[in-house]
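The records we work with from here on pair a chain with its fold. A complete example follows; check for yourself that the lines match position by position.
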Amino acid sequence: MTAVADVAATVPERQYTHHEGRGATPHRSNPVVIHREIANLDVREDMNVIEYGTGSGYSGALLAEIVGNGGHVTSLDIDAYLARWAGLIHQERGLHNIRCHVADGTAGFPKPAPYDRMVSWCTPPFLPKAWVDQVVDGGLIVAPLPIAPVPNMTVVAKIRVVGGEPVVEEVFTGGYIEATTSPKDNLDLPGRWVDWENRVPSPSWISVAWRDHDDHWNTGAHTALDLLTKDAHTEPYAGPEIDWPSWRTFAAAQADPNLTMAGLRPDLWAIGHSTPATAAVLQQDGTVLAGRADSPSLTILRNWLTAWEDAGRPAPETYSSTLTRTSEGWNLRLTQ
């Protein structure tokens, strides 16, 4: 296999991310994590590869260079603007073994399947059956997957397809933008599982894992968000600075049906517990918020945090992974 670093040295990243004809694209990932995912994908010459999420086109260019003239790369994006510009830049650079298409990647892409390798730069709601069906036996998938039914709780999974079944080989810290059925314009709001959103007097949102038990008007989610944004009880977290990837994974691994994710301030996420009448969360900045000082949700949140500290703030890579089959694919869940 050609080393990713060697190929990266030949691909002009800025030509893709800041093309003079298109300008900078916000739909791009850190090149460090792009290199990591491609290295874990174990791409080799002459392979047939597909990527979901064209973005700037940089990742597709790396893949095209690795597979060489005897291989082929298929790149999909729901945003026609991104797909067309990436295709143009590939053409400018003389890359003829990659094609960009406008499509919803969560449905797979039958032609030219089957694929030796598959990588996703966006997060589907679960591992789609179509993806597994379109990978050769022994092939690899590297993709971000949710580990709980709320936004922003993800890991990147390396999955081997064996006998038509997916097997998780490793998981890594990380995640990417949610896969959506139309281009995503508001990058501050999750693309999936937002149960109530306020836009005035300032933007805020909440996602509750118990949404199926809420009423038709989302009264419970609305109430829980109000408890956190209107005269909420606040207190600083007594422990050290929050290790967010570790805390996020630990909270998801509790598999608690009252798990809650919220965005109470721009670019500042919060994780905790809620019910239709109580709510408590820990923000990334170490602030604890609750509907009141004696909130039952606050007691549960404190217990989670104590258990997390007692466990030594485990890294996502230390958890056991389980893929559970559904009618449409597989859900990934982590346990200690």
Q: What stands out?
A: The first helix runs from residue 4 to 8. The mean pLDDT is 95.
